[in-house]
Amino acid sequence: MSYDLLVKNGRIIDGSGMPSFHGDVAVSHGKIAEIGRMSGTAKRVIDAEGMVIAPGFIDNHCHYDAQLTWDPLCTFSCHHGATSVIIGNCSLTLAPAKVEDREKVLGMLSQVEAIPLDILRAGVTWDWETVPEYMEVIGRRLGVNVGMLVGHSPLRLYAMGEASQERAATTDELEIMCQVVREALEAGALGLSVTRNRSHFDVEGKRIPAAVAPEEELIALASVLGEVGTGAIQSGGGAALELKNRLMSRLSEASGRSVVYNQIQQSAFAPDGWKKHLSVVQEACEQGVRALPLISPTVVVQHFTMKNCQIFRQMPTWLSLMQLSDQEKLKAYGDPETRDKLRADLDLPDSGFYKRWDLVIVEEPYLANNRPLKGKHIAEIAKAQGRDPFDYFVELVVQEELHTRFAFGNRNTDRDAVGQLLRSPYTVVGLSDGGAHVQFHSEVGYSTQLLGYWVREQKIMPLEQAVRRLTFDAAAAFGIHDRGLLRPGLAADIVVFDPDTVNPGKEEVVHDLPNNGWRLRLLAQGIHYTMVNGEVLMEHGQHTGATPGRVLRNARYNAIHNGSA
Question: What is the mean pLDDT of each run of 10 residues along the chain (565 residues)?
């Protein structure tokens, strides 16, 4: 027997969670041909001795919608074993978009996902209006596979114009939205994404359209998925409303489809809140509801200066200052009237910061006489000096002319809590936010973090279970039925990694974005080969030049089109 590719002598972890075994994986015509011990020949043979052969990882929460137009690899998810990514999350996509709305659509993506607007303007070459047209454009050249969700915010803007950020939709406007969703699902879109995060604003400080929509509108759109009989629903900011009124569960019940939402976490703001949340999810699942929260394996630490800061963007006065030049910022921070407004913002119930100055670390002082501050948090410094933490923070920022580098970490710092959440069958592992927050933090290494720190070092679960969490579980949640497992006949998306060394690397700054923009780069250790649709995409961390990726289509589309992907 002759194959296109033969991966030999590895520890096969097939994604099912079943015990691993040693053997070979053969590939022909982009699909897995056989698994076991093969004696046939192949155009290329890869020796995986001492390594794991697993299904390619599915990065299930990304924001590469714009980046895909200039980067078919979706760096840096592809470096961490991802062979498929899902874009369009949190209600944000680049389609549908009328010509006159393009700037507003870019502005929403820029503001919410912290991607500099000048980079988006320079990089995105618009060649579409509808969702099917966008899918066709990105599908012309892909390194990894890409599945798309229909974003509620541009959808609402498309149907309602400026009123999308002001009021409920009329019957006719809602029907336009429902029809666009139907057409997108018929073209193969993986589902719908919404948001209930009311602290997400555009560049003008107005709430993004999806955050304005009433719940009845979400239920109506969710029902379209039920009518068509395919797709999944993703929601940003869904956790609070699931706890309050079971909205995520009701969306699942209305559609008959899976709902995956942001997120369950251990938070410094409510250290034991995850326990109540998990019990609510378990109760719903036991009643037959498919509404599961995402859990990230990473401790999120944001690094920032006050030239551009994400953690204060949810407060209106702070947000308005972020749009100013550096000199204007300095003047504003030094103005007593502006300071009073900034201080008042801190008392807003949805500030997202909650005056947690004990979590704001002086990571790198700028002036030599401030070096002793390094590693200390604002609350302790202010207390030692008998100062108010807010006053001290702003004065330090002004004194060091916005150059002070801070760090802020408030999520998933309790190891035992995160371990329980990662093991739970009532959660979905993911939330890389790949393509977003490019200058603040990078979570694309969540897969290598799970395999390295949590499995190898902390031993919270068997390696077979961890691989399942990154592959089959993610595929099942979003209705991707031809990937996520190593099985003959399924797509040959494969990752070969060293379980003894796999780990995320260190964040570093790289200038590789349009308009000479910079971002944080996070590469991986121990990921030796990544194969997409039977072709080697990444070899020892380097791109081979291949572009074998495809647009992932929903199950109904694939069935109608004779199983083609």
Answer: 96 98 98 95 97 99 98 98 98 98 97 94 97 98 98 98 98 98 98 92 91 97 98 95 96 98 89 94 97 93 86 87 92 95 90 88 96 96 96 97 91 90 98 95 95 98 98 98 97 98 96 97 98 98 98 96 62
Judgement on whether residues 399 and 421 belong to the same structural domain of the protein: no
- 131-138 and 171-186 helices, crossing angle to 10°: 30
Do 195 and 239 meet the contact criterion of CB atoms below 8 Å apart? no
d(CA 303, CA 521): 13
| DSSP secondary structure of 6-37 | EEEEEEE--SSSSPPEEEEEEEETTEEEEEE-
Q: Does the residue 30 lie in any domain?
A: no
Contacts of 158 (CB under 8 A, 6+ apart): 96, 97, 98, 101, 176, 177, 180
Whether the link from the prior residue into 96 is cis, omega within 30° of 0, is: yes
Spatial separation of the C-alpha atoms in residues 81 and 76, rounded to whole Å: 10
Q: How far apart are CA 168 and CA 435, in angstroms?
A: 31
CB 454 within 8 A of CB 417: no
Q: Which domain holds residue 381?
A: 302-410
Q: What is the pTM of this model?
A: 0.91
The two tokens of residue 69 are 């137009």
Residue 43 lies in a domain: no
Strands 508-513 and 517-521: antiparallel
CB of 118 closer than 8 Å to CB of 110 = no
Report the sign of the C-alpha dihedral through residues 533, 429, 219, 282, in that order: positive
Tokens of 192: 């719908």
Both 251 and 113 in one domain: the answer is yes
Tell me, yes or no, whether 148 and 294 share the same domain.
Answer: yes
Q: How far apart are CA 225 and CA 192, in angstroms?
A: 8
Residue 545, C-beta contacts closer than 8 angstroms, at least 6 positions apart: none
Q: Which helix (H) or strand (E) holds 194?
A: strand 191-195
- Two tokens at 286? 């036991």
Token pair in block for residue 101: 């709305």
- Same-domain check for residues 125 and 71: yes
Give a yes or no: residue 540 inside a domain. Answer: no
277 shares its domain with 393: no
Question: Do 392 and 351 share a domain, yes or no?
Answer: yes
Instruction: Answer yes or no: are the C-beta atoms of 20 and 52 closer than 8 Å.
Output: yes
Strand bridging mode 2-12 / 21-28:
antiparallel
